[in-house]
Amino acid sequence: MATGSKKIILAGGGTAGHIEPALAVAVELQKINPALQCEFIGTKTGLENALVPSRGFPLKVIPKVALPRKLSLSIFKWPFALIGSVFTSIRIIKDASVVIGFGGYVAASAYLAAVVLRIPIVIHEANAKPGWANRLGRLFAKIVTVNFGSVQRKWPESISTGMPLRDDIVAVSQLRPSELAELRNSQAKEWGLSPDKPIIAVFGGSLGSERINKVVSEYLSSQKYPIQIAHAVGMHNTLPIARTGYFPTQYFHNIARVYAAADIVICRSGAVTCAELAVVNRYAILIPLPIGNGEQEANADELMAKNSATMIRNSEFTADWLGKNIESEIAKSKAYSSTAVTVKIKETAKEIAKLALSVSK
Q1: 264 and 279: one domain?
Q2: pTM
Q3: In degrees to the nearest 10, what's the CA dihedral of 22, 27, 31, 32?
Q4: What is the pLDDT of residues 271-319, one digit of tens each?
């Protein structure tokens, strides 16, 4: 590390929900000081292996240590796996000035390594129900930042910053109607779809959703309620055959353009997705992930309160439900878009970057 420079470790991986906010903060850190060395910790199998290097940041990997969710033999192996992951993290972060964590499997190991090395910790909690890694990190953090006011009320020491968002998401939210229409037309044509008809964008996270993919496939097979669909099936899933009115892809690499083109988004209700939907004023059908601690249902509450989303449980989301309800959902999206108020964008990524530098060694 060059004399006088600082090494900043950003920990959070597995899904875009942990990685994208971390990337947004890293970008702001280097805007503040281009000499800062921002380095990411992830695992070999997480989406960070695609997203982080593509944005120009180095990535170091540690063993993935998932907390067992039920009693099994793995629960007895887990403490030893965690210790091994912490020791690997220590070697990576030993000369860091601060560790900024965003939750997920890698964050817990990074937090514990930082505690051993007495490196300051800053965490950001995106969800309405915090995960175990950030609940652990909170015990040792110099600064805790949160997205939801409900979490701040439970964690009175925390700072309510909102969600760090990518620059291109913010840019879409600030387009004039004519500019937005031009972007929609361009993206629709790229997909081979008509900009003059409603477009439904469907995705189930970076790895896709078996349930959502199955429903879309069955819906298309029925051919009873033809609509236009742009569908991201997941990075490692087989790509369906494209047809008139249907564009399949494995992953939406430019989600900002997807939001600009779509009339409705059908997706999970991860914290980052919900924050992006709110900023770009896009109506959504939300299908909370049925595992975890219920954070995705809690995340959806704010959009539901604004009448900008319909929430349906994973088990109740079927091709029959979609066929019966899609026309009314399109009508709701039109009603919402006509009354939506522009959200004032918080400079969350910049705020977290400055807070982290304020406590760095």
Answers
A1: yes
A2: 0.85
A3: 10
A4: 999 999 999 999 999 999 887 677 899 889 889 988 999 999 999 999 9
* Residue whose pair of structure tokens reads 């919900």 in the numeric block: 274
Sheet holding 199-203, edge to edge: 246-249, 228-232, 199-203, 264-267, 283-286, 309-311
Q: Would you say residue 177 lies in a domain?
A: yes
Same domain, 148 and 180: no
- How many Cβ atoms sit within 10 Å of the Cβ of residue 18? 30
| CATH number for position 65 | 3.40.50.2000
Q: Which of 132, 206, 133, 123 is nearest to 164 (CA)?
A: 123
Separation CA 171–CA 306 (nearest Å):
22
How deeply is 43 buried, as exposed, middle or buried, from its count of CB atoms within 10 A (0-12, 13-18, 19+)? Answer: buried
